[in-house]
Amino acid sequence: MSRIGKKQIQIPDGVKVNIDTEHMTVEGPKAKLTRKVPPKVNIEVDDSVICVKRTHNSKESDAMQGLTRSLLAGMVEGVTKGFKKNLEIVGVGFRAKVNGNKLDLNVGYSHPINYNIPEGINIKVTENTKIEVEGADKQLVGQVAAIIRRYRKPEPYKGKGIRYAGERIAIKEGKSV
Description:
Outer Surface Protein A, domain 3
């Protein structure tokens, strides 16, 4: 039996949870999130507690119970607190700027990169080199941060590029004469 799946999820004040046969919806002060219900699980909502139960006694049902519980817990946290990822730009002349719903990146290419910010995501740029990605959907926040990082990954010789805040890059030694 899944250890994570057995745990109950506490529903904070101001959060509404609606479960039907195909979709689970969590609505709170920051956003409204909807996901499809994975197969082989039943979700029970009491006054202030969500329980995820298995329908079969199989490994797949066990895995789906843990997955569903983790997804619901992330949704509840996202609509109350939200999620945040911080990125840093390292390099001479590298910078970022937000124009409306676009993120403009100048990261050493001959042209600027324009990234369309998806709905439900807020991006702030401070000091021209620090990017903060915020949103209610944990998966979407991580995906947007990964896409932005992919435009110029940190290279191993000088460490220039876009990296997560606090990420340590192993610097290689260059050629020796």
